[in-house]
Amino acid sequence: MNLERLTKLMGTYLLLSFVACIFVIPIIFMIISSLKPDYQLLLDTSSMRAFLPVGDISLDNYFSAFRRAPIGLFVFNSTFITATTLVFTLFLASIAAFSFVFIEWRGKATVLAIIIATYILPFETVAVPLLLLVNELPWLSTEGVTWGWLNSYQVQIIPFLVRALEIFLFVQYFKDLPKDLIEAARVDGASWFQVYRRVVMPLSGPVIATVAILKSLEMFNGQYLWPIMTVQSEEYRPVMVGLQYFFQTGTTHWGEIMAFLTIITLPVLVFYLVLQRAFIASIASSGVKG
Amino acid sequence: MAKSLTRQTASGWLFAAPAFLLIIVFLILPFFMAIGYSLTNQRLMSPNPTQYVGLDNWERLFGISLLTLEAKRDAAGSIVLIDGEPEFPKLRSYTRDKEAFPEYFRKRELFHLDFSKDSRTYIMAKDIVFLKAIKNTLFFVALVAPIQAGLGLLLALLINQKVRGINAFRTIYFMPVVISIVVVSMLWRFIYAGHDGLLNTLLAYVTFGAFDPIDWLGNTSTALPSIMAMSIWQGVGFHMIIWLSGLQTIPETLYEASRIEGSSKWQTFRFVTWPGLKNTAILVMIVITMQAFTLYPQIAVMTNGGPLDSTQSIVFQMVEKGYGKQDIAGGSTIAVFLFLLVFSISLLQRWLTREKQ
Fold first, then answer.
1. Are residues B241 and B97 in the same domain?
2. Dihedral over alpha carbons A170, A174, A176, A179 (to 10 degrees)
3. What range defines the domain where residue B111 resides?
């Protein structure tokens, strides 16, 4: 390798590393800060010690964060809401897409067009009237029929079960599957549901992963505005709204806040680092074919 | 034969119905409810029946009127000057008197223009906070969308090089995307802190102490730009990946041809890369614009609209009214306005990027 190419390569790595620092420094700062007591935290920000786990390092912030807010409950709520939504989303979106791609029926094109059109309807534009709507919907529980969904799990799950993007992603994927396979199964006397379950879904690993990742991020990370509007009781609160607990007293305990942020971020980050190929592929496919 | 195997209206409907019904009930129906409520005085809970009020809600948000006042004159007829400036009658006498001046009642000054020495024209608005929210949101979209798209493309080009270990860098650049915007906002609130925040410290460090610390979020001129910078930091990795997958659809043979022709790097980008990215560009712009218009969590976590309404956003105002004040009608009106804005901007983008004949 000659000198010119070597310096060019060095330059490339230098630039790549500099940009990497911009993205990673705030995250490292968050994790390191969560290990320091407040007095040291404020002292350290005025020097490069802010990025180093030095001085009075402990997990005290984590213990006091758990005392301040029912973090375990919030994490459970968010996980439960995300997992339940995910199961329904994958089923409802894929079976609808199956119908749009493989079965001929009257009105199909219109229904699909209406669904796709809702893509340009941001959730924010329906949140306010939806608040009024869910306040008047019935629910069947062990206590019989009750009215109003405020302060519940279902108010955070059911409105988010299906979105245009998810159906669209399945439709795009199903279109590329070999049609012969489906017809062969039909000739053999398989019902439509059997074709869906036994033939199509086993071939759909990549698109299932894509939708699962996008939906999990939306539900676990993205739910903020809606739970603020609909969930006042602690019992059903998700993680992002739990942040409010750290501002109720006069002084802000940054160490505790950083501990809380780390607790609700680290699991997702670890997931991402383990499955990074799938994460990146899912974002890529949410775009390319649009 | 094949037809009878695929045609089955009942199963088709049955499979699509649950998803379609959910989208109707939780997206399409509330959208039309929003249009309906924007013409009524609907509240979340109210003892009085809901009434049709026409365009009152729109008037409450967008009501603007002009008020031209003559400068005060003394007995001799010359203009009264205070510190060399002409004095004008107090606006209060117009905005507090419902009987005499119904048009100006409860309006506030948005800004004023001096057309001549002895007269001043006030532009009076019913809801100046909402108008500021529109201005801020448009400013946010107009800067964040192109900058985020542009930086995303630069990062994609950077990461598309074939050098060892490039995947590790791609993984790092994308990392903020998997962190919740709520977490990011909280973290950056600490980074932006006025006295000894991390950003001030870093800037002081690289300038050898020459940098005067700034209260980034407490200053009307820096609060919104700070939120923009953070939003770009969080979102740019997302668009980098979309650009990257666009880049990878451009066939290698085109690059080879351009190399053989002896094109410069810029020429290669201009005539090979960019034309191949056109569809990606349209998609990236539409997605970013839609995301930017719904600016909310950053504001709610970092500034609550302040200081002095300099970070108010349309969605923040919508939540303040529709939820905070339980004014479903007012919130719905803002929602409809937001939809019209997003819709017309995406139509405009489609039209600007249409295939030219």
1. no
2. -170
3. 64-125
